[in-house]
Amino acid sequence: MKRFTHKKTAAVALTAVLALGGGGIAYAYFTSGGSGTGSAEVGTSPSDAFTISAAGPYAALLPGNGPQSFDVRVANTTGLDSYIGTVYMGIATYGDSGDAATAAGDDIPGCLASWFTVTPSIDFDEVVPADGNVTSTGLGVDAPTIEMPAASVDQDPCQGASVGIAFSTTGS
Questions:
Q1: Residue environment code for 21-56, b if the CB has 16+ CB neighbours within 10 A, otherwise e
Q2: C-alpha–C-alpha distance, residues 161 and 95, integer Å
Q3: Confidence band (pLDDT; 50, 70, 90) for 40?
Q4: Residue 27 forms part of a structural domain
């Protein structure tokens, strides 16, 4: 019977050694550090993200009658919020002729662009919501103006014309 106990003790001892050995393997690993790089691509805004238009002036321009105010509307044509900084304005001109042009770009023969002045720029400094719009009056900024100062020459070629205002903008 002693022999059986000795075998039992040997089996228990062997099991303990295997368990400890197996446990030792479970804890046998190396620690290490590491480094790496990744990237995230930043998209771009289309160059024609905004449509800029004018509402008004509501009174007819007459030589020497003073400036007439109008509202500038900026519409975001993208599906993303986009920032608009400064909107620059000028009288639309027809090629190199010096003539004023309509908003569609058609010539107004003999009606010189130099006979008009327009506020050169307006600071919007605003994020325009996706597919939304903002107006200069809605932002509470000073309304831009257009004027036809009196000249010492006949300005009749401009009578009844719809003089275009050219707009451009930058993001900041």
A1: eeeeeeeeeeeeeeeeeeeeeeeeeeeebbebebee
A2: 17
A3: low
A4: no
Provide the CATH number for the domain around residue 156. Answer: 2.60.40
What the block records as the tokens of 104 is 């569609």
DSSP labels for 17-28?
HHHHHHHHHHT-
Decide if 91 contacts 163 (C-beta within 8 A). Answer: yes
Quote the tokens at residue 21: 């050995």
Write out the two tokens for 35: 């480094």
Q: Note whether residue 107 is domain-resident.
A: yes
At 170, is the secondary structure helix, strand, or coil?
coil
Residue 125, domain extent: 50-169
- Residue 22, in any domain of the structure: no
What is the distance between the alpha carbons of residues 132 and 37, in angstroms, rounded to a whole number? 38
The pTM is what? 0.70
Name the residue among 149, 140, 126, 162 with its Cα closest to residue 52. 126
